[in-house]
Specification:
The longest helix has 5 residues. With 130 residues, the chain is mainly beta.
Length: 130
């Protein structure tokens, strides 16, 4: 016999990425869909050029769900397509670019700002759940 854990959910449901992405249309505004320890899983839609920035305290993972993303670095670039992931090491300046809309997941510690320490009008509101 299995003893239920205290406060365990009564139902178990997977998180559907396509469903979550269908709930919003704005660009560059990530939405949190799950947490694991101190890390958040965020979905976002982007198109166009972003600003140069870094994250001095953490790595940042980009997982492409739909589209093609180029991440520029000061000494080169990486091109990511559907189903591919890339981890930008902490402290490395980078600039995402998407010629057409990209849907992706970001995996990073809770509280990480999309613009790093650059700030400004491109900074998305943090910890917005969907």
């Amino acid at each position: 016999m299995v003893t239920p854990m205290p406060n365990a959910p009564q139902t178990y449901k997977p998180i559907n990425l396509a469903e979550k992405l269908s709930l919003f249309s704005d660009q560059w505004q990530q939405r949190v869909i799950a947490e694991m320890n101190d890390y958040q899983f965020k979905v976002v839609k982007i198109e166009g050029d972003f600003l140069w920035h870094d994250h001095p305290e953490t790595d940042e993972a980009f997982l492409i769900i739909e589209g093609e993303l180029r991440i520029d670095f000061e000494d080169g670039a990486v091109l990511l397509r559907k189903g591919e992931i890339y981890v930008v090491p902490k402290g490395v300046r980078h600039k995402p670019y998407a010629a057409h809309e990209v849907q992706m997941m970001l995996i990073e510690p809770r509280g990480t700002l999309n613009t790093g320490e650059e700030g400004g009008e491109s900074t998305a509101q943090n910890d917005v759940w969907i």
